[in-house]
Design goal:
The complex is a heterodimer of chains A (325) and B (353).
Chain A lengths: L1 H28 L4 H6 L5 H11 L5 H14 L1 E3 L2 E3 L14 H36 L4 H14 L3 H15 L15 H35 L2 H8 L4 H29 L3 H6 L5 H10 L3 H29 L1 H5 L1
Antiparallel strand pairs in A: 1-2
Chain B lengths: L17 E14 L2 E14 L3 E5 L6 H9 L7 E9 L2 E2 L5 H7 L4 E4 L3 H4 L6 H13 L3 H14 L5 H4 L9 H13 L5 E5 L7 H18 L2 E6 L2 H7 L2 E6 L2 E7 H6 L4 H8 L38 H4 L3 H4 L9 E2 L5 H16 L1
Parallel strand pairs in B: 3-8, 3-9, 6-7, 7-8
Antiparallel strand pairs in B: 1-2, 1-4, 4-5, 9-10, 10-11
The chains are: A mainly alpha (325), B alpha/beta (353).
Amino acid sequence: MLQFILRRVLGAVVTLFLIGAATFFLFVAAPSDYASLACGKDCSPQRLADIREALGLNLPIAQQFWDFMSGIVTGRDFPTGHCPAPCLGQSFYSGDMVWSTIMDRFPVTMTLTVGGAIVFLVVGVGAGMLAAYRQATMVDKIATGASMVLSSFQIYFLGPIVLTVLVYSTGWMEDPKYVPITDDPVGWFIGMSIPVCVMATIFTAQYTRMARSSMIEQLAEDQVRTARAKGMSNRYVFFRYAWRGSLIPIVTVLGIDISSMLGGAVVTELTFSLQGIGQLAVAGATTKDLPLTMGVMLFGAFFILFINILTDITYAFIDPRVRLS
Amino acid sequence: MSTLTKIEGEPVPAGPESFLSVRDLQVTFATEDGPVKAVDGLSFDVRRGSTLGIVGESGSGKSVTNLTILGLHNPRTTTVDGEILLEGKELITTPEKEMEKLRGNRMAMIFQDPLTALSPFYTVGWQIAEPFQKHTGASKKEAWQRAVDMLEKVGIPNPKERAKDYPHQFSGGMRQRAMIAMALVCDPDLLIADEPTTALDVTVQAQILDLLKDLQQEFGSAIVFITHDLGVIADVADDIMVMYAGRAVERGTVDEVLRSAQHPYTWGLLNSMPRLDSDLSLPLEPIPGTPPSLLSPPSGCRFHPRCTFRDRVGGSRCVEEVPALGQGRSSACHLTAEQKRTIYLDEIRPGLG
C-alpha cells in the first residue's frame, strides 16, 4: 500500500514537472512575444528592452527554464522584490506574486468545492440509493423525475432565479459573499450557502441518477444473490454487499468533478460574483496576463494529479482486488 | 430414491418421507413483451439423503424453479403459484423475514460461477462465517473458527491462513470448494446445486462431485442438482427429472432414464453427448431447432416442433394435446409405451455406443 502511494506520488511529481515544462515552453519560449504582452499597448522600444531585461528574457532559454522551475521549489528574486517559494511568477498587471493571488482566492473555491461536494454527495447519492432500494415505487419515480428536471437546468439559469426569490424580491437573505471562515464562521456559512446549494443542486441531479443506476446494477450481481441465499436480510445485503460495489463509479466521477471544481468553478463564481480561482483564470486569459494564466494552470494540474492519487487509494479501500495488483 | 408417484398438476399431499415437495409450480415473469411462463405446472419430490438431478437446456426453467424454492425471485416481476413444501411447511406464502431464517440455514444453494457468486469485497472466511453467525447466534470468533473448520472439511490446505484471503486469491476449484463450505456451514437439510461444476475443468469437476457425495453422506442432506451435463448427473444423482420449456418431460431413477430413456427430448440429449469410444469422424448430433420462446410456447406437446418422432404418433395429437406425465417412472409423450421401448432399443441405443 505504502509502496503504491509512493510510486504514485513520484509519478505525479514527474508529471507535474512535465506539465510545468510544457507550460513554460508554450508561453515563454514559443514566439508569443512575452515581453510585449507584459509591456502592454503604446510600448516604447526602450521600455520593451527594459522589460526584456527585467524578465530575464535575454538569457538563454535553458537558463530561463531553470529559473522558472527552480523558482517553484526555492523561490526567486525579481527586480521588484523577492518571490518566495513556490514562486509562480509575478502578475503583469497587479505586480502581485501569482502564488499569493491564488492563495487569496483559493478559500472561496475550496468552500464551493467542499461544501458543494458534501451537499451533492449526501443528498444526491442518498436519493439515488433510496430510489434503488425502493425501485419502481413512488419514491423512485419522484427521485428520478426530479433529477431529470434538475439536470437539465444550468447554474446561470437557476442561480439568478434563486437570487431573485431569496435576495432581491424578499430580502430574506443577503447577496452571497465570501467571509473568511476564521473571521466569522456564521457569516461564512450564510454568505456561501446560496452558491454552494445552487451549484450542488445541478450536481445532485447527476449523482442521483448515477447512484441509482449503479446500485441497481450491483443489486443484480451474482454476489448479491449469494448473500441473499445465505439468509442475510435485504437491508444488510443492500448496505454491506451492493453498496460497496456501487461506490466505484461514483468515486471515479467524484474525483473528476472535485479536481475540476478545485481548478475553478467559473460559472458559479461568475453567477454569484465570487472571486475564486475560476474568475482568476478568466481574468488571466482575457487580459493576457501570462504568469497568472500559467500559475492557475499549474495549480489546477496539481489538483487533478492529487485527486487522482486520492481516487486510486479510495479504490483500494473499497475493492481488495485493487490493493494487490 | 425419491417418490415420483404423483401426476402433474394433481394436488397430492406430500408423502411422509419426502423432504421437499413441489406441487404444480407455476412461475410467471412480467416482461415488457408480456408474461413469460418460465415454469408451468411442475411437481416433484426429494427425499432426505437423496439427490435429484434436474436436466435440461438453458431456459428450460431449472434455475428458476430452484431460485423460487429459496424465494430469491424478484417479487415485483414474478408471480408464483402452486405449492412448495419443505417438510410440510408451505414456502410460497411464507413471509420474507421467515424465509431469511430458512435460507442458508435449512436450505442452501451453490451457484454456478464461484468467481461472481462470491463477493470480491470480503474475505472467504468471513463470507462463510457470516451466515453461521446470523443463523446460530454464535460469536464472531466462534463463527470464524467454524469457517476455518468448514474450509478444512472441503479440502482447502492451510485453512487457517487461507480463510483470510479474498476470493480472487483462490483458484477456480478452491473457490467452488469455499462456496460449498459456505452452503454447508449451517448443516442445511436441503442443498440446491445450480450447475456447480460447469465453470470448472474436468479434473476439478470430478473432485468437487466426490466432495459433494462425501458431504452428503456425512450430513444426510437432500440435494437438488441442476445441470445440463448427463455425464455429471449419472455420477451424482439417484433420480432424474428432465425439463423442457418449463415442464417436466421425463423422470425416473438414474438407471431408468439413462439406460432406457423414453422421451424424444431425452433421446436428443443422449445423442448430443460426445463419447470417447465412438468414431471421431462422426459429428455430434444436436437436437434440431432451438428451444421455444416462452412468451408464446408451442401448443400441445412443447417439444413437437423439434420432435423427429411426431409422425409416428399420427394425427394432430402432438400439436393439440398436452401429454401427461404419468405416475412414477414416466415420460410425457404421446408415443405408446411399446413404441418408446422399440425406438429406444432399435434406433437410439445403437448410436450411443
